Fold this sequence. Notes:
alpha+beta; CATH 3.30.1390.20; three-stranded antiparallel beta sheet; 2 helices; 25% strand; globular
Amino acid sequence: xxxxxxxxxxxxxxxxxxxxxxxxxxxxxxxxxxxxxxxxxxxxxxxxxxxxxxxxxxxx
Length: 60
């Protein structure tokens, strides 16, 4: 089984740079408190690190 991480959106993208908006869209996070289970690979980890102030990585 491949490894996954759960990412939850915790802050709004209003007033954020366009690059951050595109990253959040690529992660599939639209609404606050929405949780997505994503593959744990370097590209996803890199996107999460760019918007770490807007998301929370959940255990499990």
